[in-house]
Specification:
Chain A: This is 4Fe-4S dicluster domain-containing protein. Chain A: Keywords: 4Fe-4S, Iron, Iron-sulfur, Metal-binding. The structure holds two protein chains of two kinds. Chain A has one domain: Alpha-Beta Plaits (2-Layer Sandwich), CATH 3.30.70. Helix content of chain A is 22%, strand content 18%. By secondary structure, chain B is mostly helical. Chain B is 67% helix and 2% strand. The chains are: A alpha+beta, B mainly alpha. At the A-B interface, strand 3, strand 4, strand 5, helix 3 and strand 8 of A face helix 3, helix 7, strand 1 and helix 8 of B.
């Protein structure tokens, strides 16, 4: 039955640092690559080389602009994937039991052999974390790379989600958010990590670290920057005079 | 939301079909024999036709039987089970009416209740979604049930009942539109709560994740036809309620003309239901559109 598990003491999830993300989309590509070659149906593309390409992605990076009342606007790159909610509405709406949350570690998964592709779980998700694959006709979502994190055939450093492994800036962190002493939990506590759309009551496991306000320059810029040299000095002055002496030089 | 033809056909036809079944189950009209055969044929045709249409929007229709398994937690699964139960009970009741010229009243009442329960579960599939504030309201089940009862009354030729139900359903539809138009704003979900970036200033969607479209935009950020929404509301309202009401209250002496008008009222009403049902989907705004700066 697709009710939610009573309580999973382990809550595996991601912490995304919006201060660090540079918007390179490497996590998007790493995710697409790993999840096309491994768990479940591949993430298909439609018309990939044509005029109107589109495809299934489990992770997408948005960009937002924050305009404060005073000062410069701030650009924030915003990666978004399944938040593995504690009260995941996508699990309880599923008519077949294909959509489920594991009591062992809280990961929300889709049993693709039971999914009828009705799309109701995607309708119930406020975050747009689920996409129906048009080629396979089944629902795709972030698996938190369940086939990497427990895969002992991989080197230790690769036993983390592909997006976290590939992030060149270190903006993504993976760990147990149910354990208050874990690195990710402490990071969330230190930086005031937040839930997306808390009013939806989904209790997301993934947390976002809000960007800190930009530094404001308190001192005036150096006068040198305001008035660049127009009259050369020293060697450059000599060179200037010497070149002027030549035919065609300034009079 | 994307107004998928399969879902509009499904909710329209099965709503009318289960509405007619509910009236037949209550013995309104208490038909038997060949007349009953025609009535039940129509009712089952509409209800089953709608249910079959609903499978067309599935990615894997051959696995649809699995949808009966989660009736304890999922409204969609509940609907499947309620539909089968309603059709089974009414099927037995229909056999009694057609072949044995008898009305097993308890069975009929149960079938009528199950038929209405099926439409209620359909409406709850939409009502349960917090992500679509326009649907997440008690008026949504009231809307579906009033449409179902009105269509059923017209199909069953219950003119007196229809004269009460038509204005009632019209009122619920009007309130539903009025409330629905405010729903997204009053839900409190904005780009600021979606991104939690509102603390430092005004947030604006700067760049989407991809230059092309995607499943989310196609399914949840349907905007075509919004500009004609008001006109379609007027057309839908006139077809669904005003014209059928006029057609059934106009005094005519000839029985043939009376039946003709009643038949016409059913067709006009059905066209109105399709129009308003299209709007039900096309006008519904999913909160995920916020992330794309589309709300």
């Amino acid at each position: 039955m697709t009710t939610l598990p009573a309580k999973s003491q382990k809550k595996l999830g991601l912490v995304i640092d919006l201060d660090i993300c540079v918007g390179c989309h490497a996590c998007v590509i790493a995710c697409k690559g790993w999840n096309t070659e491994n768990y479940g149906a591949p993430l298909s593309d439609q018309d990939p080389y044509g005029a109107d390409p589109s495809g299934t992605f489990l992770n997408r990076v948005h960009s937002y602009e924050i305009q404060p009342d005073q000062g410069d606007a701030q650009l924030v790159h915003f990666p978004k994937s399944c938040l593995h909610c504690e009260d995941a509405p996508c699990v309880t709406v599923c008519p077949t039991g294909a959509s489920y949350k594991r009591d062992k570690d809280g990961i929300v998964l889709v049993n693709e052999d039971h999914c009828i592709g009705c799309g109701l779980c995607a309708w119930s998700c406020p975050y747009g974390a689920r996409e129906l694959d048009l080629a396979a006709g089944v629902m795709k979502k972030c698996t938190l790379c369940v086939d990497r994190i427990y895969n002992e055939n991989l080197p230790q450093e690769d036993q983390i989600p592909a997006c976290v492994r590939t992030c060149p800036a270190g903006a993504r962190h993976f760990g147990d958010l149910g354990d208050a002493t874990s690195d990710v939990s402490q990071l969330v506590a230190d930086r005031g990590g937040v839930d997306l759309m808390p009013e939806m009551g989904t209790k997301p496991v993934n947390k976002y670290l809000p960007p800190r306000p930009k530094d404001q320059t308190t001192t005036a810029p150096s006068p040198a920057l305001d008035q660049p040299h127009t009259t050369p000095q020293g060697f450059m002055a000599w060179l200037d005079r010497a070149l002027d002496q030549l035919p065609g030089g300034a009079k | 939301m994307h107004p998928a033809p399969s879902v509009i056909v499904f909710t329209t036809l099965s709503g009318l079909g289960f509405g007619l079944l509910a009236f037949l189950g209550l013995g309104l009209p208490a038909v038997t024999g060949w007349v009953a055969f025609v009535f039940y044929g129509l009712a089952f045709g509409l209800a089953v036709g709608g249910l079959v249409a609903s499978t067309f929007h599935l990615g894997q229709p051959k696995r649809a039987w699995r949808a009966f398994s989660q009736w304890r937690s999922s409204w969609l699964s509940c609907e499947g089970c309620a539909a089968v139960a309603a059709l089974s009970v009414m099927g037995i009741f229909a056999i009694g009416a057609v072949f044995f010229r008898s009305h097993w009243q308890v069975l009929g009442a149960l079938g009528a209740a199950l038929s209405l329960a099926t439409v209620f579960t359909t409406s709850m599939i939409y009502t349960q979604l917090k992500t679509v504030p326009r649907w997440h309201a008690p008026l949504t089940p009231a809307l579906f049930l009033s449409y179902c009862a009105t269509g059923g009354a017209l199909l069953a030729g219950q003119i007196t009942v229809a004269q009460i139900l038509l204005p009632l359903a019209a009122l619920i539809q009007l309130f539903s539109w009025l409330q629905g138009d405010q729903a997204f704003a009053s839900s409190g979900t904005t780009l600021a709560t979606a991104t939690r970036l509102g603390g430092n200033g005004h947030v604006r969607a700067f760049e989407p994740p991809h230059t092309g479209s995607n499943y989310l935009l196609r399914e949840f950020v349907f905007v075509v036809g919004r500009k004609h929404a008001l006109k379609l509301r007027v057309i839908g309202f006139a077809l669904a309620f005003v014209l059928p009401f006029a057609l059934i209250v106009v005094p005519v002496d000839s029985t043939v003309l009376k039946h003709l008008f009643a038949g016409l009222a059913v067709l006009v009403h059905a066209a109105g239901v399709v129009t308003t049902r299209w709007l039900f989907f096309a006008e519904a705004e999913h909160v995920v559109g916020l992330y794309y700066g589309k709300r």
